Amino acid sequence: MQRVKKILNDTADVVAETVEGLVLASDGTTRLMDGHRVIVRQPSAREAGRKGKVGLLVGGGSGHEPLFSGLVGQGLADAAVCGNVFAAPSPDAIAAATQDIDDGAGVLYVYGNYAGDVMNFDMGAELAGDEDITVRNVRVRDDVAAAPKERIDDRRGIAGDLFVVKIAGSACESCDTLDEAWRITAKAEANTRSIGVAVSAGSIPETGKPTFELGDDEIEIGMGAHGEPGVSRQKIGPADAVVDQMMAALLPDLPFERGCEVALLINNLGASTMMELLIANRRIRHCLDQAGVGVHRTEIGHFLTTQEMAGYSITLLKLDDELKHHLDAPARSVAYSRG
Amino acid sequence: MQRVKKILNDTADVVAETVEGLVLASDGTTRLMDGHRVIVRQPSAREAGRKGKVGLLVGGGSGHEPLFSGLVGQGLADAAVCGNVFAAPSPDAIAAATQDIDDGAGVLYVYGNYAGDVMNFDMGAELAGDEDITVRNVRVRDDVAAAPKERIDDRRGIAGDLFVVKIAGSACESCDTLDEAWRITAKAEANTRSIGVAVSAGSIPETGKPTFELGDDEIEIGMGAHGEPGVSRQKIGPADAVVDQMMAALLPDLPFERGCEVALLINNLGASTMMELLIANRRIRHCLDQAGVGVHRTEIGHFLTTQEMAGYSITLLKLDDELKHHLDAPARSVAYSRG
Amino acid sequence: MADELDAVAVRAMLLQVCTRMIENTDRLTEADQAVGDGDHGIGMRRGFTAARDKLEALEPASVAEVFKTVGTAVMAQTGGASGAVFGTLYRAGATACGDHALDAATFLAFLEQGLAAVQKRGGAVPGAKTMIDALAPAAEAARAAQADGLAAMIRAAADAAQQGVQASRDMIATTGKARTLGERSLGHPDPGAISMQIQLAAMQDYVAGQRED
Amino acid sequence: MADELDAVAVRAMLLQVCTRMIENTDRLTEADQAVGDGDHGIGMRRGFTAARDKLEALEPASVAEVFKTVGTAVMAQTGGASGAVFGTLYRAGATACGDHALDAATFLAFLEQGLAAVQKRGGAVPGAKTMIDALAPAAEAARAAQADGLAAMIRAAADAAQQGVQASRDMIATTGKARTLGERSLGHPDPGAISMQIQLAAMQDYVAGQRED
Ligand SMILES: Nc1ncnc2c1ncn2[C@@H]1O[C@H](COP(=O)(O)OP(=O)(O)O)[C@@H](O)[C@H]1O
Ligand SMILES: Nc1ncnc2c1ncn2[C@@H]1O[C@H](COP(=O)(O)OP(=O)(O)O)[C@@H](O)[C@H]1O
Ligand SMILES: [Mg+2]
Ligand SMILES: [Mg+2]
Ligand SMILES: [Mg+2]
Ligand SMILES: [Mg+2]
C-alpha cells in the first residue's frame, strides 16, 4: 500500500522539527529546553514577577498537535513535554521539565490516562521527588466509550484535556498551594465527559500507514485519540443520528441534568471539515436544549488531533461558578487564546 | 467512484445547517438574518453604543469554514454573507446584509477577487446604492500563483483574507469615515501575498467527488482555494524543498525586503496535519531569517479551508506601524480571538 | 409554425430550458472539474430548479415577466459567476421585450441586450473562454438570420452556440476560476458556454416542437 | 558450553537482542495496529537502536551495567508503555545481578525481579494481555529449570514466552491501548508479549551459538 501522502522531511525527525516549529510559532513566548523535547513558557512565571507559582506540566505523545505543546503560555501550562508520535514521553524528560518549572510550590501534572503516560509520568515524578519537588497528578479520563463508569480509572483522556488544562492553568496561576490547584483541576476533570467518532484513519508518519481500516460506509463510535477501537463499528448514518448516539452516551454518564450549565467542545480529529463540526453543533445544541442543559461557552476546531484521522469528538464540562471563573480567565498560547 | 466519506445530513442542506451551527457556536454573539444566509454581529455596534460605525461586510462562497462567517464579531466584521459551496452569494443577500449593518457611515466590503464575487458584490452594492448607502470594496488578490504581478487584478484571494479582514475590522471599529477605513484596508491588501500547495483534493458535498485528481506522488504548487489549478504540478519533494519553492515565489513579489517586518500565516487547507504546518514553519522562519525579514506575529491553523483538501498556504503581510496597530487590536469571534 | 410566442408559450419554452439544465447537472459539473472548481452543474441545478418552481407558479402577464422571473431566480439561487451572468442575461434580456410577444426581432434584442449586459457586468471579452463565447456567436448568427423568422433564428443561434462551445476548447481562460490554468485549460470547453448552448438548444427544440404541431 | 557469561558476553547477547528487535519492527507495528495504536514496532526500534548504540560504546565493567545500559536507553528513547515496561524490566533486572557473572541463578533473579518491578510499575496482572503474559511464564519456566544451567534455563524461558504469546491471543485486554477493544481483541496476540518473546529467543540463540563454539 502507498504511504499516506504528507509534506514532510525525514520521518524520523518529525517530532524534533514539530517542536522547533511550535516554539517559533509562539512568537517568543516559549522556548525549547536544552536536550529535551520540552517546551517551556517564556518568560517563566518567576521571570514575569510571579514568585512561587504552582507549576503546571502537561504532555503526552506527539502527533496530536496543537495539544499539548500548543497550550504552553500565560494562563495555561508552564511546560509541555512531548513524546514521540503516540508514545508517552520518557521519565528523564518529565523530570527535567519538572525541575525547570518548579519554583518551590510544587508541580501539577495534567495528562491523559494511558498506561504509558501513567508509568512514565510516575517515574518522572519519582525522579523529581528525589530532588524534593512535590508533584500531584490529574489524569484525564473523559472518554466515556473507553470503559463503563464503574471502571472510570480505565477510561482514557481525549479532547477533554483542553478544558482540564485550561482550568488547571488558571488555577495554578491564582492558587497559593499545589493542593488547591489540584482540587480545582480534579473537579474539572471529574466533570468532563467526551466521546469521539471517526470515519477514516490517521497514520503514524514513520510507518506511513493508516492505523486502522474501516469500510467505505462505516463509522467507528467511541474511537480513541490514537485510533484505538471504540465501542461499535456501524454503517454511517446521517449526521443527526450520529450526534444523537454520541449525546445518548454522554448525557447520562455524569449525568448532565436539567438546569446545569456546560462548556461544549467539538474537536476535529484531523481531516473532517469545519462544516461537519458546525452541522454537528446544530444537533448537539438541539439535544442539550431537550435535556435542559445550557451552554456557557463553545469551542470548536482542531485541538487534540490524531494526525489526519477524519472524525470528531464532543466534550461536555459541567460548570459551577468556580470552574466558570477559571475557564473564562484569560489565556494566551499558540493553540488557545481567549479572554 | 465512492463518494467522499463525511458525516452529513442531506447534502442539499449543508450550507443552511452550517450557518445555523456557526451562529450557535458564537455563544450569542451573532445572529442569522431572516430569509438570508447572513450572519450578523450581536449586539450590533449601534446596540453596543457605537453609533455611526463604518460597517464591514465580508463573505463569499461557503465550504471554506471557518472563514468568512467565523470572522463576525467584535473588532472584526459586522456581517458575513454566505454563498453556496464555492459559489459567491447572491446580490439580494449582499444588499440585505448591507442595509442591515449600515448606520449611516457606509459599508466596506472585503472579499476575495473572483469573477463571481466581484459581479455579485457589485450588484449588491448597486442595490444598496438604490437605498443611498455608500459602499467601497477591497478585493483580496493575495495569491501570487494566480497571475504575474503586472496583472495583479487577475489574482484571486486566498488565506490572506484573514489579515485583511482583521485589519479592516479594527479600522472600521476606529475610523470616522468609510474612506479612511478603506485606505487602511486597501494598504493591508496591497501588502499581503500568499501561495498555496496541495497534495490531495477536497470535494463539494453535493457532488461527493474530489474536485481534482493528483498522482500519488504529486503536489500542486499554487493551488487555488477551490482546487483551481496552480502554476505547476510536480513530484512531491521534502517539506523544506516545498517551502523553499513557495518562499521563492512570495518574497520577491511584493518584495519583502531586508529589515521589513511581517505577519505570517500558515493556513491549513483542510486535512493536513498541524505537524506538517509546524515543520513548514521551521523552514519558513529559516527563509525569512536569510532574507532579513522579521516576524511580528504568527498565525497557524485552519482559517480558510477547501473542505478536506490536504495542503497549506503561506501568507506574508508586510507591516508598518499603522497596520501593526490594527492587526494587534483586540478581536473576538468563533474563528479568531486575540488580544 | 409559430413565429411569435406569447407569454404562456415562452413560459413553456423556459420550463423546457430549466428541465434540460437540471438534466445536465453532471455533465456541467464534470466540465467545471476540468477547468474550474467543479460546482457549475450543481449551481445551475439550484438556479434552474428555483426558476422552474417560480415559472410553474407564474400566471405570466408578459414575455418580459417570464424572462425576468427566470433571471431573478437564477441570480438569487445559483450564486457564483454563473448566477450573476445568467441572471444578468435573462434580466437584462427581459427589458428588451417590452410588452411584445416573442418574435424574431424581440429574440434578437433579448440576445444582444443580454450579451451587452453580461459583458458590462463581468468585463469579459470574447475569446476569454466564458459563456460569452457561446452567447456572442449566437447573437451574431441571430442577427444574420433576422429575416428568417423566430424558429430559424433560434436554430441559427443554437448552432452558433454549439460551434462556440467547440471553439472555446482552443481558448486560454483569462477570467473566472479557469484563469490560472493557462495552457492547461486548452482542450477543455468552457462550462458556462456549454450551459448557454444547452439553453439555446432547449429553446430550439421547444420551438421546433411547436412548429410540428 | 558457557554456563556463565561475563559482562562482555552479556553485552554481545544483548546486542543480538537489539538486532532482532530492530529487524522485527514491521511485525510488531502490525501487531499493534490490530489491537493498539500501531506504534509498537517503531517505538521498539527507537529504543533498541539507542540501546545498541550505547552498548557498542560501552566497555562493560559488570553484567549489571550492561542490563542497566539497555534499560536506560530503552526507557529514554522508546517512550510509551513499552518504554516504561521494558526499561523497567532491564533496569530492575540489572539490580538483581550484583557483581556476578550471568549464571542461571542470576538470570532467574533478573527475570523475577524484572517481572515484579514491571507489575509494580504498571499494575497489570497476568491475563491482562500484556508483555507480562510472556514474561511471567518465562520466569516460571526459568525457576523450574533452575537446576539445568543457564542455556537450558534461557531456552525454557523463551519457549514459555512463546506459549505465552499464543495464550495472549485468547485474552481480553484490560490495560493499555487494546483495553477498549474488549472481545474484539480476541484472536490477536499482544504486541508487547511478542517483543518479550523475541528478546528471550534472541538470548537463547546467542547462548546456543556460544555453546556450539
Ligand atoms: N466575467 C465573466 N463573464 C461571463 N461569464 C463568466 C465570467 N466569469 C465566469 N463566467 C462563466 O461562469 C462559468 C463558471 O460558472 P460557475 O462554475 O457556476 O461559477 P464559479 O466560477 O463561481 O464557480 C464559466 O465557465 C464562465 O462561462
Ligand atoms: N500496564 C502494563 N504493564 C505491562 N505491560 C504493558 C502495560 N500496558 C501496556 N503494556 C505493554 O505495552 C505494549 C504496547 O506498547 P507500545 O505500543 O509501545 O505502547 P503504547 O501502548 O503506549 O502505544 C502492550 O502490547 C503491552 O504488552
Ligand atoms: Mg503509543
Ligand atoms: Mg464556484
Ligand atoms: Mg465553478
Ligand atoms: Mg502502541
Question: What does this molecule look like?
Answer:
- Chains C, D: Keywords: Kinase, Transferase.
- Chains C, D: Residues 8-205 form the DhaL domain.
- The complex is a heterotetramer, with 2 copies of chain A (339 residues) and 2 copies of chain C (213 residues).
- With 339 residues, chain A is an alpha/beta fold.
- Chain A folds into 2 domains: 11-191, Dihydroxyacetone kinase, domain 1 (Rossmann fold, 3-Layer(aba) Sandwich); 192-326, Dihydroxyacetone kinase, domain 2 (Hypothetical Protein Tm841, Chain: A,domain 3, 2-Layer Sandwich), CATH 3.30.1180.20.
- Chain A contains 8 helices and 12 strands.
- In chain A, strand 10, helix 7 and strand 11 form a beta-alpha-beta unit.
- Helix content of chain C is 71%, strand content 0%.
- Chain C has 9 helices and no strands.
- Chain C has helices spanning 7-23, 25-35, 40-57, 63-78, 80-95, 104-122, 132-144, 150-168, 191-212.
- Classes of the chains: A alpha/beta (339), C mainly alpha (213).
- Chains in contact: A-B, A-D, B-C.
- At the A-B interface, helix 1, strand 7, helix 6, helix 7 and strand 11 of A face helix 1, strand 7, helix 6, helix 7 and strand 11 of B.
- The complex binds adenosine-5'-diphosphate (2 copies) and magnesium ion (4 copies).
- One magnesium ion sits between chains A (61, 86-87, 226) and D (37, 39, 80).
